[in-house]
Amino acid sequence: ARDQIHNFAAGPSPLPQPVLEKAAQGLLNYDGTGIGVCELSHRGKEFKAIIEGAEANLRKLLEIPDNYAVLFSQGGGTTQFSSVFLNLLAYRRLQHANDADYAPPTVDYVVTGSWSSKAYQEAVRLSIPPAPGAKPFAEPRIAATTKPAKFTTLPKADEYDFSPEAAYVYYCENETINGVEFPADTQSPYAFPFDRVPEGVPIVADYSSSFLSRPIPKIERHAIIYAGAQKNLGPPGVTIVIVRKDLLVDTTEAMKLGGVPAVPIQSEFKTLADNKSLYNTPPVFSIYVSALVLEYLLNERNGIAGIAEANAAKGEALYAALDEAEANGKLRVVVKEKDARSLMNVTFVIEGEGREKEFLEGGEARGFRQLKGHRSVGGIRASLYNAVTLDSVKALAEYIKSF
Ligand code: PMP
């Protein structure tokens, strides 16, 4: 039964029980209509109320300023690796509409783990010139990276090298696989160095695995923030994109000027914004459940402050147990620097022949599920998203102490 299981999945991840119960009902018969939520028109008044309510609650929870559009897009975080590049290059091209010799801009990536690596690689791929020998569409740069440290820490402020004229700067707030997260405290030496990014250069953040886990520091300093739903928001399917409205540009006009890659219409933020995210059929079920989660977070979890407090307590409990076990030589915590540690994805390695398997099997017997680290890095990963309770985390901490 669900209540005997502690689900530490990295995503898709657990959702609040009351939300699931309500969603199950809505799947069969939405609000007394006799029709399930996935059987209603996405242009009808019922779905309009769902998506508009979700947007209003999201704006309230994260204090999203009015000069940002909130888009409900599809294709996951992976599609955003491409979409942010395409839209911001189109923006840059239109800013330089009258340049006779338009030069491909640099795009600056902060590479702190597997996901920012993938985003960077997509920018490299999409920069490939339209013909051999022709100008590339952009020049991707790595402005800072912790790859030499195997992505187990974050860069310090003076390790960033931003180019003054970049079309944008990109970072991943929480690296789901490696377990590093930029600290919420903007005074920390490991905080993202907003002040070092040259004035006017748009900042893009992948918030996929930390979205809604706590407030977004310096939200107004960002150009684009995006996040797939499947961690703290809802089921996979919908991806939230928060875009500063002046960056919503007609990519067709940019394409006509030349020097930019073609932009599929589904990736154009302006089209999504102009059509209130209903340019085509949206992932209605994912949006519906996300709307229920947002309502729940606002009303039952004391908003973002309550959520942040609970997540901090969970992280503290687990890292304390891990540090103690490490001091006793039982295991190795992957991220040493406290300010770089993720509160959402906690990674560690059990040393010794066969011990990791033993740990996982013992955990299974106690109801702990989905603790295996990502296949690319191995080890153990406990994901502590919003719906994971402090009791579950304490149970895991006790198990670690006794192991
Ligand atoms: N960015 C981050 C930080 C992620 O954790 C993930 C997936 N877990 C992605 C991007 C890719 O998202 P998707 O699988 O939705 O394409």
UniProtKB/TrEMBL annotation:
GO terms for molecular function: O-phospho-L-serine:2-oxoglutarate aminotransferase activity; pyridoxal phosphate binding. The keyword Amino-acid biosynthesis applies. Pathway: Amino-acid biosynthesis; L-serine biosynthesis; L-serine from 3-phospho-D-glycerate: step 2/3. It catalyses: O-phospho-L-serine + 2-oxoglutarate = 3-phosphooxypyruvate + L-glutamate; 4-(phosphooxy)-L-threonine + 2-oxoglutarate = (R)-3-hydroxy-2-oxo-4-phosphooxybutanoate + L-glutamate. It is an enzyme of class 2 (transferase). GO terms for biological process: L-serine biosynthetic process. It comes from the Eukaryota. Residues 6-90, 156-396 form the Aminotransferase class V domain. Pfam families: Aminotran_5 (PF00266). Belongs to the class-V pyridoxal-phosphate-dependent aminotransferase family. SerC subfamily. HAMAP family: SerC_aminotrans_5. This is phosphoserine transaminase. It comes from Vanrija humicola (Yeast).
